[in-house]
Each structure stands twice: as structure tokens, then as C-alpha cells.
Prior knowledge:
By secondary structure, this protein is mainly α. Helices cover 81% and strands 1% of the residues. The chain is built from eleven helices and two strands; from the N terminus they run ααααααββααααα.
Amino acid sequence: MDALSLLPYFKFWTYIFFLIPSSLCSFLVLYYLLFNKHQRHALHNHMIILLLCICLICQLTIYPWMLFFYTHHGYWQRSWIFCSIWTFIDWGLFIMQAVLFAWTSIERHILIFHDRWLTTRSNRFLIHYLPPICLTLYCFIWYGFTYLFPLCGNSVVNYYTTACMNSCLYDSNIFSLWETIVNQLLMNLIIILFSLALILRILWQHHRVRRRVQWRKHRKMTVQLLSISFLYLIFSFPNSVLILLMLCGFALTVHIEIKKYAEFCSYLVILFFPFVCILPLSNLRKKIIKFFTLTQHRHAARIHPTTQHRQ
């Protein structure tokens, strides 16, 4: 049995291993950010809340559906509407998250180095709220007309794939190139470049310009950005590069085989995202550790008297 035939089994056990803790982590972080007044009003948490909501939608829909698909040995007959919704969530929301995080990597520079730009209500709307609203609408419109309401009218359902809708719009080379270069590759490049630029700016301010950057205040924000950027660099960026190579004619067998593994890795971004978000939230981490510590003590306290009684 070759490696490719083992891949569905590997996907199934990998996804099921991370899905439950990742979903629980998403709920915990969202609860902490939404019901803690200080965290809820912090501008740097707004995009994280939105991104976590997208993650949670994916975790509660496409990942259970994929697991069910793998238990049916790679074939599952589904309706056209269901396939349209699945593919819209699977691909549309995934790209939306990357697009929104690309803006987040830009906005971090504003929040750290140009926070005075956000002192007025009008500036906060124009700089902080309007860009993600426009980007979200762009993704909804783009992928809505791609999968939910295709303009070409002859999209095909493929029962042998997880995201089972093959949109007819991808038959257009212009559409495919725009979707790959702008919506995927460019967003990943923005994430990587602006994350590196953030590191360089912090080092420059600290060592050369000698301007005081409130590092303790912005450390968690910076660490969170860099950690999430690392996720996209490792798991998402290679898949985008391979898609571009295949569109440019490099459709060799080795590239197709590597593409299967790159696509599998790209799905790990959603599963690992909540764990990365929790890293800078020290108070939440302490509460979780305290909860598990108390649970272990209570469990030990229940067992210990029984052991003594038997002795």
C-alpha cells in the first residue's frame, strides 16, 4: 500500500485528534475575550475574535463532514446545495481568514507604532473597522458567486472529494490566476513580509533610534501575530505556491503528489489557530491550569480514602 492510499486514514486520525481540543479551545478563548470587558474593548482583540469565529464555524461543519466522508471510503453522494455550502465554507471562509489576518498583520504596525491615529471615533472607524468590513464583503461576494450562485451555471458535483463542488468559474484562466495570486499567494506574502517588518521595526526602534516602544504593553500582541504568521508560513503558503505552479503548467506527477500533502497541511491552520491565540492570554492559561490542577486534586482525594479503607 503506497503513501497516497494511506493518506485518507492519516487525515482522519490527525483531524479527529486535534478537532475536539481545538474546538474547546476556540470556545474558551472566545468566551474569555467576549465576556471580559477589558479584553472585549481592546482593539487588538477584535480581529482575533472575528478570526476565531470563522475557525469555530469551520470546526463545527467541514471537519466533522470530512471525517464522515473518510468513513465512507472516499465516496459520499450529496446534494448540489449541500456541496455548494460545504465548498463555500471550506474554501471561502478559509481564504477569508487568510485575507483578514493579512490585514491584521498590517494593522499591528498601526496599533504599536501609530496608535495616535486611532484616538478619534472617525479614525477608528476608517482605519480599524472599515477595512475588515470591506474585506469580509469582498470574500462573501467573490466566493458567494463562485460556489453558491455561480454565474456560469454549469458547476459540477464530485462525490469522490470532500469539498464536492467544482465551480465552473475556475475554467477561466483569468479567474483562477486572480484567485490564486491575489486571494491566496499575495495574502500569505503580506502576512510573512509584514510580520518580518514588525520584528525589524521593533529592533530598529529599540537599538538604533532609541525611541521608547512600550514593549511590555505590545509584547503579547507581537508574539501572537508572529505565532499565527508562522502557522501560515508552514502550513498554508506551500499549498498556494504549488497551486500557482500547477496553473503555470508545472503539472508533473511529483507536484500532484506533493499537492495532496500540502493541501492536508493547509487544513491544520484552522485546527492550530486557537492554540496559538491562547499563548499570549496568560490569565486564561492560568485559569485553565488551575482548573485542571483542582480537578486532579479532587480526583485524588476521592480515590485516596478508598485506598486507605481497603488497607
